[in-house]
Amino acid sequence: MDIDETGKVLREYIFENKGINTPFGKAEYISSNNPLGQGGNGIVYLFRMNNKEIAIKFLLSDQSEKRSRFKAEFFNTNYVRNNLINVVNMIHYGELAITGEVMVPYIIMPRYAQNLKLYRQNKGTICESDFLNIAKFLFSTLESIHTAGIIHRDIKPENILVDETGKFLLSDFGIAHYEKAAFPIDNKTKMRNRLANYLFSAPEQLDYRAELTNAADIYSMGQILYWYAFGVTNRGVDCRRIASEYEWSIGTIYDSVIGKCLMNEPENRFQSIDEISKFIADSQKKETEIDPFDDMYTFQDAVLSVFPEFYDQVYEVRGKYDSGYRPVGNGDDPQRAAKQRPHYAERSRKDPFPRCKTDRRYTYYFRLKMLIFQ
Q: Within its chain, how far is the Cα of 113 from the centroid?
């Protein structure tokens, strides 16, 4: 029986019985907002159990390989659940016998409010904090699944769910690759399988000869970040930049992160989330490092506000309560210097060294030789 026929039989069974029976009681079918979602091999319906809404995902394909993947999605992911962060809660795996010939596997999950695609549409204007929230979610989630030995391979907005509190969760591990030695069920996916969507998948996922690594998920993450900022994915043409379109403090850094994530060759991308985190930390440190010349520029402005003649000249300054000075060498005429920088001459003659004074009785002597230049 093909997928369409199985889907029709399942739908008629649910309508006729007003739900399905589970080991925990009857899941009552909710007529509105159904189905919640549908893909190439499965469908998700909304049910109610003990006055709580739940979502049940059904696999419509009868191919043994796809059924193995569906079963592995539940058992393997739950096997390492304590080590995972921001992953949907899959409550129960079951098999619904509709007729003697039709058996449909299913997974029970909580009902989530929406997916990331709808979330972004409803947001309208994207602000920096929104962007950082999704970035932090992706970093922590991918780091946890990669550490556990899982390559998701299908990261896209429809597979990122959002609960009522606004928390993001990664879903749909149906085509994930699980490191065989670390999990109880072999889900029959090979590292070279050509799988996943086109818009968000890495170039090597479209080539059955290429071997996939964590860098494939990192590419998809880069596409998610780019899409979240601009509403479209990037395929290497007319690349837009966050720093050019948003007045965000992190714009330049994340432009660099996204750019490297989206490199065509896997070896040219970041190879891990830890590498990305270190890159961001180093970039932020460079941006916040103190420039020793900043104080010199401030000092220059202070002196020139009192002595515009100092511009581009060497002077020896000496004084007591006043500021006596004389040119050293063949300096330019003071009037000429003032004309070159009239805005300095127009400033009030404020003392450029206020921190040298303690009270009115102070006496300061200074002998200063300097070249002020611009």
A: 21
